[in-house]
Amino acid sequence: MYQKSRPKRSRLSEVNFRKLIACFGRDLTAQDTACLLGFHRHTVSHYYTYFRSLILRECLDSQPIAGEVEVDESYFGPTRVRGKRGRGAGKKTIVFGMFKRNGHGHVYTWIVNNCQIPTIIPIINNKVLQGSTIYSDDLGTYRFLYLQYDHKLTYHGRSQFAEGTNHINGIESFWAYAKHRMRKFKGIQKSGFLTYLKESEWRFNNRHKNIAKEVLNLIKKYR
Asked: Which of 7, 52, 66, 132 has a Cα-to-Cα distance from 99 of 20 to 30 A?
């Protein structure tokens, strides 16, 4: 599905290649980049797919985490679908996420079929080391986390959203960022959603760095 190395059949000079990376670093769409640089849109899309394949590979290679971790789920897709009601209705994609509290905060995401215990709890157990502190809302799926973790609950059903350090504001800030960012692509096919989700995750985790330089580092790492 993706190129494993830098596309070879290209007439881009090193200067133009760097300009392309700079535009990608600024999170411009392929269409906007093609117009700005005067490149063919197919060429830009080809390279953007390559950059995203490296990002996806990097994100899937993450290690277990420990410490203070926020967990939550969110629904991506059309705001409203005719004839459908409720969370996750219609064509929405369910995403489960974790936010590791540290100096800057890092997020990790998974596409899931549902938010039930058999789906969510194994993800948490595989990713978060026992003894860590987990913050969540009052979704019933999380009710047994206290058996392995120091579990802190925020009762959204009672309009309680933050009490000191007891909140899930970190993961919720990522949901807002990811949804706002994805809107500019004006519709992402379900087959490619994971790539754009992981790109949003990676950009969020590297938000205090120079994204263009980080892309160059990935190219060197996986060439």
From this structure: 52
Q: What number is the average pLDDT over the span 22-32?
A: 96
Distances (CA, A) of 11 to 5, 71, 139: 16, 46, 53
Same domain? For 34 and 85 the reply is no
Domain check: are 120 and 143 in the same one? Answer: yes
Distance CA 107, CA 147 (A): 24
Q: Which domain holds residue 50?
A: 14-61+207-222
CB 98 within 8 A of CB 126: no
Decide if 167 contacts 156 (C-beta within 8 A). Answer: no
Asked whether the beta carbons of 74 and 97 are under 8 A apart, the reply is yes
Q: Are 56 and 72 within one domain?
A: no
Q: Domain containing 126 — which CATH number? A: 3.30.420
The model's pTM is 0.88
Q: Indicate if 112 and 152 belong to the same structural domain.
A: yes
Q: What DSSP line would sit under 112-135, residue for residue?
A: ES--SHHHHHHHHHHHB-TT-EEE
| C-alpha to C-alpha distance for 187 and 199, rounded to whole angstroms | 16
The predicted-structure confidence for 51-71, as pLDDT tens digits, reads as follows 999 999 999 877 899 999 999
